[in-house]
Amino acid sequence: MHQIVIKNGLIPGFSEGLQKLNVAIDNGLITAVASNLLAGEYVIDAEEKYVSPGFIDIHMHTYPFDQTGYIETLNAMALMGVTTVLDGHCGLGKSDFMKSEMIFLEKPSPVNYSSLVGHLSLRMMVGCSDLFSPASEDDITAMALLLQQALNAGAPGLSFSLEYVPGTSLKEQLTLSEAVAAYPGRMVTTHFRYDADRALEAVGEMILVARKTGVKYQASHIGSCAAYGQMNKALQMLEAARLDGVDIMTDIYPYSSFMTAIGSPVFSPGCIERWKANYEDLYIIDGRHKGKRCNQDRFNEIRENEPSVMVMAEVMNEAEIEAAICHPLAMVASDGMLFDGQGHPRGAGAFPRFLGRYVRDRALMDWPAAIDKISAMPAMRLGLGNRGVIKKGYSADITIFDPKKVIDCSTSAEPAKAPLGIETVLVGGVETVKAGRLTGKANGKFLKHKLCRV
Ligand SMILES: [Zn+2]
Questions:
Q1: CB neighbours (10 Å) of residue 126?
Q2: What would the CATH number be for the domain defined by 55-273+314-386?
Q3: What is the CATH superfamily name and number for domain 2-51+401-438?
Q4: How far, in Å, CA of 8 to CA of 51, rounded?
Q5: What are the tens digits of pLDDT across the range 279-306?
Q6: CA 86/CA 377 separation, integer angstroms
Q7: How far does the centroid of ligand 1 lie from the alpha carbon of residue 161, in Å?
Q8: How far is the CA of 60 from the centre of ligand 1 (A)?
Q9: How far is the centre of ligand 1, averaged over its atoms, from the C-alpha of 49 (Å)?
Q10: How far is CA 298 from CA 293, 294, 311, in A?
């Protein structure tokens, strides 16, 4: 008699296709995957549903831990079928990994969690606050020491944001990436330096750092970098580098809009022309003009006076988003973050949207290949060991969804609205989502890399 049995579901296998199999779970682990009947104390009937490895979000954000947005975002992740997340991207992760763990443990989380160290946070720690100047030799040395402390404590790696910290020098990137490369399995993720007409230059810079340091490298959210006419070339560059032995991959959120603060360098003069867009493509998320679109005057006025107002920019080419989603070097991630019900709809919709809109409705790929991009692939990339596959001995992180119903419901007007079709989510064998709703049970673990320095 097993503690939990999931019966009658279809399990996607990357090489085997969909197979009707039953799954047994005991003490948080998958203990049997079999075609014969299994007896359980608690039985979940997954008839006509897909029993998938829990989704792994390799690129997401949370607001600082001490604000409510932290758990709000993680709850939205669970409702999307996500069971493990990697936070701390785009330079923003905390510099002190041990502190991240202490804070995490204070408040139960519905999903497994880890966070990269943020380059911007390291800069702030060493007093290098001018975002437009390169760090000095001494500052780089001091940052590398802090980074090593975090890596010794099990941090999965480091994130850069070259667009938001334009002063970041090549030397700074190389030294800190080398420090990460000294720890096998750890990674560097980078928010590109330029988008649109300079996207290929930005991709070239990321490939150069990956090549020179040999570090495992993730070019973050390639859509907002290159979906303005440069995507095919950008993907070809990554492919060529990969064939040449450079360990670089990418991720993409399944939307043709991005979101950031109107005062950020992303909206520096010339951006509208560069994106071949209009001011009306910018949708205002918060502040006095919430829910309105920009025009030139409104844009200038808000950028000047309320630089922290968030704007959703509907400026990317859909066909190029699709091309990136389909590419074998790309994983699908959310880049999501919610705070007080506000944010880009990807924070509550990315994974159901990928499955419902792009896999089912637009038939960009088959189900097993799609599920691979959001489970086994990121699990391998992150070195998560026994996660990301439905297999005996693996952690019982499992998402049961209805392939006919799954779809995102979050919109720019209602960004936190939960999706449809994500029925049950188990995290370490604990039922975190049942009938599409949170159960209130929170079994997420703080994930650390084991220390294995060469
Ligand atoms: Zn970013």
A1: 19
A2: 3.20.20.140
A3: Urease, subunit C, domain 1 (2.30.40.10)
A4: 9
A5: 999 999 888 999 999 999 999 999 999 9
A6: 14
A7: 7
A8: 9
A9: 34
A10: 9, 6, 12
CA–centroid distance, 246 to ligand 1, in Å, is 22
Structure token digits, residue 157:
């790696």
Q: Which two tokens stand for residue 28?
A: 């948080």
Structure tokens at 114: 């880890």
389 phi/psi in degrees, rounded to 5: -140, 150
If pLDDT is split at 50, 70 and 90, which confidence band does 68 have? low
Any idea where the domains of the chain sit in the sequence?
A: 2-51+401-438, 55-273+314-386
Structural contact between residues 306 and 340, judged by C-beta atoms closer than 8 angstroms: no
Whether residue 27 contacts residue 3, with contact meaning beta carbons closer than 8 Å, is answered with yes
CA dihedral for 229, 367, 403, 418, sign (positive or negative): negative
Are 443 and 78 in contact by the 8 Å Cβ rule? The answer is no
Q: Ligand 1 mean position to 3 CA, how many Å?
A: 41
Residue 112 carries which side chain, given as an amino acid letter? N
What's the pLDDT score for residue 453?
Answer: 44
- Two tokens at 231? 């995507």
Amino acid at 204: G
Q: Which DSSP symbol is given to 208?
A: H
Residue 245 CB neighbour total at 10 angstroms: 8
Residue with tokens 């975190």: 432
Geometric angle at alpha carbon 183, from 178 and 184, rounded to 5°: 110
